[in-house]
TrEMBL record:
Pfam families on file: Amdase
InterPro entries, per database record: Iso_Racemase_Enz_sf, MaiA/AMDase
Cross-referenced PANTHER family: BLR3294 PROTEIN
Location of region: Disordered: 246-285
Listed name of the protein: Decarboxylase
Origin superkingdom: Bacteria
Record field: compositional bias (Basic and acidic residues): 254-285
Length: 285
């Protein structure tokens, strides 16, 4: 059979991903990736510890990360990403930078972490106040708050789930409910949904439309930052981080000004207040 007409395969660019042993959302990462890029995943060794600060430190030891990066180097990725939020914020900004340095030293290629990508995304969106949603316990959530505060960003609201295992099973409806709890109107410039094991892809556009602020998530910022280093863009329709046009929300119905309404809004409020007072007084007679 003549196959000369086929050509290909298309040239492939690679992103190496080091994930914790319990990471279960490979398919979500792929949703942000353009066709010409392939993900090459590896996992850290299993440790019999539930999600906690102790686990965060165990899965982010430099020796462990170095071994994972060297394994990935066999398929020649152009960048490597450490896909774990708590593992990369647990020792603060200095700890995150040291992790990147260790990974780069092991593979001689650019490296990013989820928490480092978070700070990049906050800077990209010019966020000074952020609300947080996490699946973590109180202690792990507080460590995230400290990390964000160290970067000069104020936390204005938070909601956490208190989970120590099986985080990938959390349904979208619970993520949405937690987001509504965390965000106080007018208090946050953005919402961050933490943990690479917490699914978020499909709820980001809906939450942004409802909350009217950028909504960023752990897996989203990880892929966004890694792909930036390739000079390409993550795929995510109607996600503010990935599309500047998505950062302009149409006015809510009550915010729409009627061009035929020439009455002073202050006079309208005064009239309404007078009417309510009159009705209240008539009710007492």
């Amino acid at each position: 059979m003549d196959v000369s007409f086929l050509g290909g395969p298309r040239p492939q660019r690679g992103v190496g991903v080091v994930a914790p042993f319990d990471f279960a959302l490979d398919r979500e990462l792929w949703r942000w990736v353009p066709d010409e890029v392939s993900l090459h995943l590896t996992r850290t060794p299993f440790v019999p510890v539930e999600v906690s600060l102790d686990l965060a430190r165990l899965v982010s030891e430099h020796r462990t990360l170095g071994a994972a990066v060297r394994a990935l180097s066999a398929v020649a990725p152009e960048v490597v990403a450490y896909a774990c939020t708590s593992g990369s914020f647990v020792d603060g900004i200095a700890g995150e930078r040291a992790m990147c340095a260790a990974m780069t030293a092991a593979g001689a290629l650019p490296s990013v972490t989820t928490s480092g990508a978070l700070l990049e995304a906050l800077a990209e969106l010019r966020v000074r106040r952020v609300a947080l949603v996490t699946p973590y316990t109180v202690s792990v959530t507080r460590a995230l708050e400290q990390y964000v505060a160290e970067a000069g960003v104020r936390v204005t609201g938070r909601a956490h789930m208190g989970l120590t295992r099986h985080i990938w099973r959390v349904p979208y409806r619970e993520v949405v409910a937690m987001a509504r709890r965390a965000v106080r109107p007018g208090r946050a410039d953005a919402l961050f949904i933490s943990c690479t094991n917490l699914a978020t892809y499909d709820v980001i556009p809906q939450l942004e439309a409802e909350l009217r602020i950028p909504v960023i998530s752990a897996n989203q910022v990880t892929m966004w930052a890694a792909l930036r280093r390739l000079g390409t863009r993550a795929v995510g329709p109607y996600q503010a981080l990935l599309d500047e046009a998505a950062r302009d929300w149409p006015p809510l119905p009550e915010e729409t000004h009627d061009p035929h309404d020439t009455q002073d809004p202050h006079e309208t409020q005064k009239t309404q207040k007078t009417q309510r007072t009159k009705e209240h007084g008539e009710g007492l007679t």
